[in-house]
Structure formats: C-alpha cells, structure tokens
Amino acid sequence: MDGSLIVSNILNPPVLFFFLGMTAVLVKSDLEIPPPVPKLLSLYLLLAIGFKGGVELAKSGITQAVVLTLLAAMLMACFVPIYTFFILKLKLDNYDAAAIAATYGSISAVTFITASAFLTELGIDFDGYMVAALALMESPAIIIGLILVNLFTTDSDRDFAWSEVLQEAFLNSSVFLLVGSLLIGILTGEHGWQVMEPFTQGMFYGVLAFFLLDMGLVAARRIKDLQKTGVFLISFAILIPILNAGIGLSIAKFIGMPQGDALLFAVLCASASYIAVPAAMRLTVPEANPSLYVSTALAVTFPFNIIVGIPLYLYGIELLWR
C-alpha cells in the first residue's frame, strides 16, 4: 500500500484535531467541550450530509445503480450482525455477543463523513445517494441484535417492549434528522443547495474538525476500558472491520460501483455504531456490558478506520478495479 495515502489522511486537518483531543487527555490538559456542543455539532453534520445527499439524489434520480446499492446496504446491515454474533459467542455470553454484533452491524456516520472528506481531498467523485445507504444501514442491526437475544437466551422474565425498540431503531434523532434532511434535499434540489450552501458546505470542514476534537477526547478516555475487553475483542475490533470492508468491496465490484462509492460503501460496512446502537442496547439488553461494546467501537475501530482503514480500503479498490 502507498504509505503516502496514510500520511495524507493523517495530515487532514479534521484527523489532526482528533489526535489533538487524544493528546489533551493523555497529557492531562483541562480541555473540555461543554456536553451540549458535541450534540449540536453532530446534528449539524447529519443535516449537512443528508441535505447534500438529497440534492445529489434529485440530480441522479432512482436508477438501477441506486437500487442495487441500497439493496447491497440492506444485505450487509443484516448479514454482519448475524455472522459476527456466532464468532463472538466463542468467548462471550449471548447478551454481550448480541450487543457487540449489533454495534458492528450498524454504522458510524462520522467515519462516513471523514471518508467523504478524504475522497474530496483526493479529487475522487462519489454519488450523493450513498447517504441513503448510510441511513438504511443504521437501524436493522438493532432489530437483528434483539432477535438474536430472544432466540439464544432462555430468560423467561425478559419482556421486550417492541414499540420502544422500533422507535429507537427508526425514529432516533440521528436517523430522523438524516432521512428528513435527505428528503428536503430531494424536494428542493439545486435551488435549495444554492440557498443553503454557505451553511451546509462553507462551514462543513470546520465543524467536522471541532467534532473530531471532541471524539479524540472521548476515545482517549475510553482507552482504559480496553483492559476489560482483552486481546480477543481488541483483535475483533480491528480484524472484523477489515473483513467487512473486503466483503463490501467484493459486492461493490460485482454490482459495478464506481471507486468513490465503493470506498464509502466499504467504510459503512467496516464501521461500528457508538451512538444509536449503544443507546438501544442499554435500553433493551441491560444484561450486556456497555464497556465492551462502546470501548471497542469507539477506542479501537473508530480511530483504526479514520487513520489506517480508509487508506487501506482505497488501496484494495485500486487493486480490484484495475
């Protein structure tokens, strides 16, 4: 692999701000970001990426490529939690295995956004409808995870409130805002883009850098939790994303995705949720240990993907697409 891709990715300002956040914790700086600010920044990023995706989808229309991509996204969102559950069961109980499988079956919007910035930096085009794939892949893993818990546990006292589960899966703030912004982008098209561009485009990289600064603070604080996960889960948190990206790239090649879309699809397959799924698992599977599924996704998989994974998956594309 061309090492310059990794260097170029690391020297991307938002990624450097991620390191700055980690450094602040490691040197015991008193740098703090007030709790409401990261929430506001994440809502902005979801609005901007959803709106841009909607505008691009309005331009392209519903083509065969769009339909195939969205079907592939749904396939991977259901397949990943099922197969990883049986791997995790080798070392963990059914509750922890289901919670972690659901975490890795879902996606990280911030990793997707960082990959989009990486492609823009390299001048590689990608289609806006990949945002629709992002929205589709966030929720199914929650449902699959709960089905696995029901199938493989014998606790007769468990009583799932499926209405709450479905509400958390499909109407949580991330999915609701992303899908809503996508629809507004489709409805308003190019005119809407011109009106919103100073907000959704001009501020985007600055907000992403600020958000990754906070992610660096949070990830560094979670590092000590890795002592509880052991070598098995740390290895899982690195190797499974690579495997999922490989499966994703094979599907992307088979259905003829262009390289930029293929990278974003691979990143979606390789990423893990650290917001929506943990929130749902805490609500519905309290027997599972949050320090396992949050720390592996946030302190291992997320930094691995944004530092090494994204350039690695692009290298795989360069080999497969020759």
From TrEMBL:
Transmembrane segments: 6-27, 39-55, 61-86, 98-119, 131-153, 165-187, 199-219, 231-256, 262-280, 292-315
Name under which the protein is recorded: Sodium-dependent bicarbonate transport family permease
Keyword Membrane: yes
Record's keyword annotation contains Transmembrane: yes
Organism from which the protein derives: Chroogloeocystis siderophila 5.2 s.c.1
Protein origin, superkingdom: Bacteria
UniProt KW keywords: Membrane, Transmembrane, Transmembrane helix
A Pfam family that the UniProt record links to this protein: Sbt_1
InterPro entries: Sbt_1
